[in-house]
Amino acid sequence: MAGTLWNTCRNINNNINTSLLISLRQGHHLRGKPPGVAKSLETKLAKANFKDPAIYYKVDIGLPPSQISKSKLKEERLKVLKEQRKSPILEKLARERKLSINLEEVYEEWLKSTGPKDIKRIIEHYGIFEHLYGDAYFYSRVPLKVFYENNEGSSPVYFGNVIKPSEATQKPIVSYECDKNTLWALTLVNPDGHLTEQTSEYIHWFVGNIPENDITKGETLVEYLQPFPPKGTGYQRLIFVLYKQEKQIDFSSFKRDGLCLNLSDRTFSTYDFYKNLQDHITPASLVFYQSDWDKSLKDFYHNILNMKEPIFEYDFAPPYIKKQKWFPIREPFNLYMDKYRDPKQINKEFLLRKLQNVHPFKGSPPPIPFPNAVYFEGYVPSWLKLEIRKSRLKWGRINEIENQ
Amino acid sequence: MIKSTINNNFLLNKEVKRRFASTSINQLKNKVSPIFTNRNPRNLERLRIGYKPDGYHVEYPDKQFWHKLLLKSSGKYVTASVCHYQNGEILTASTSEWAIKKQLYRTIDTSSYVNLGRVLAQRCLQVGLIEISCFIKPNSPNDKVSLFLKAVEEGGVSLTEPPQYKPSRPWDIDRPEKPWEVTE
Prior knowledge:
- The complex is a heterodimer.
- By secondary structure, chain A is of the alpha+beta class.
- In chain A, 33% of the residues lie in helices and 18% in strands.
- Chain A has helices at 2-16, 18-23, 41-48, 70-86, 88-95, 103-112, 115-125, 128-133, 270-277, 296-304, 333-339, 343-356, 382-392, 399-402; strands at 59-60, 136-137, 144-150, 153-157, 159-162, 173-176, 183-190, 201-211, 219-222, 236-245, 267-268, 281-291, 311-314.
- The two termini of chain A are 68 Å apart.
- The model of chain A has no long low-confidence stretch (mean pLDDT 89).
- Chain B has helices at 2-14, 43-46, 98-101, 110-126, 144-154; strands at residues 19-24, 35-37, 67-73, 78-84, 88-94, 133-134.
- Chains A and B meet through helix 4, helix 5, helix 6, helix 7 and strand 5 of A and helix 1, strand 1, strand 2, helix 2 and strand 5 of B.
- Strand 13 of chain A pairs antiparallel with strand 1 (19-24) of chain B.
């Protein structure tokens, strides 16, 4: 029955107008070009963010790579590998899945072989070259080892690991391998922690004219100061850079007397520092760690920096609210109007309603065990019922005053 | 709804990024500006408030990550890497590297997968990555890939990333806990 009815209807429609049937299809028309042809967001962004390599190119300012014959290296490596393939002990361990390589040894070998390239990628990922040297970069050719000694043990510095301020109160132990009769300079800078200028750095430690690798014999220009990231600002990068000096340099313009607890005196710019001395110094190595707030800093701010501890909170974007209409059709009137009122006024109303039930000496009444089962006396409009229920269940705007 | 979230994300990325407003300032000796800027590009991701792409839930490969783990194997070598959603591959460990190859018997067998996992976990911890997303699904619980993933986890790297924290709007039903206010 239904089938025949449908057929007759279709016949009638066909007889009347065929184009009418096509126009009745809703929601099937493509807006713009089809997916294969139209540009995706990715291609559009790539075009918008494109930088011409002829203008925006990077410059290598580091030390040249060490001159080792590649064929000789390959020969040596092949020899080791061939011996390994013959070893029955290693074969048995690998077969029984018990082979466990020495991670320390891997790390040491990695620093000497493919390490510098990988480290450069990590440093770029953390945006360090961009913030310290602008359009320049360098490879860490001299493996630099830095670690903090503290009561809980030692905290080594790698390439972005987290070290808390309480672990870094004392100056770290620095070691590196170098040739005889060479001079070095070491800086520890923090590009994220400046309390007044947003694009400046603080210098936490500066030792210049270091003969070979003995830091203690170097000329301490700025005394060591521990990291002090304020509460709520997250993780700051603390960057050790080792420079190789061509000759003895007069750093007296960077000299700061005493502990230098006046932080504005510690304002530093690695870019300017390197720009002025680029003929005499070459960056040789870079290691860094990240540090965030911990409890020990309260004492540090009060007693050592002699200031009140600053506390910050992230400034989120305000929620998007569309333009108010004269006649908002199909919108709940109370919720719609609330969006355009002063939120402080709304919170005040909630607070006043709450305080009506609070006795000044006896305190607030006990919470309702079953908020949805409370009887509504007399006539209450449905929107108001909903509002009361929401307040009883602690849903929505009431949280703004409840959680304070 | 969609429009508003996109709007927020773009704001986070461009204008309001890395700005922190101060609630208490006192000037005794050192001045403190009311607006503090942390330029560390990884800071917001680590605080869980940085932008994290959403993608589509049926899309492959998955796009919801800050950092994700990748594993590729050629006929001779295995390569594991960590990929960032903007910067691409940022960290790699491969059995073709001399540092690892030097101590292995073969570069593609099970024990090389396990040792590669250990090395990758070590490098992740050294560069400050403690959580990375992993969309690799091993075929069986005892194959090479699952042993590799197990080795990464045993090395101290979590293979799941927390969701992005989005600020609650005044009309939202509840107020989720702020991750940076939770004391350890």
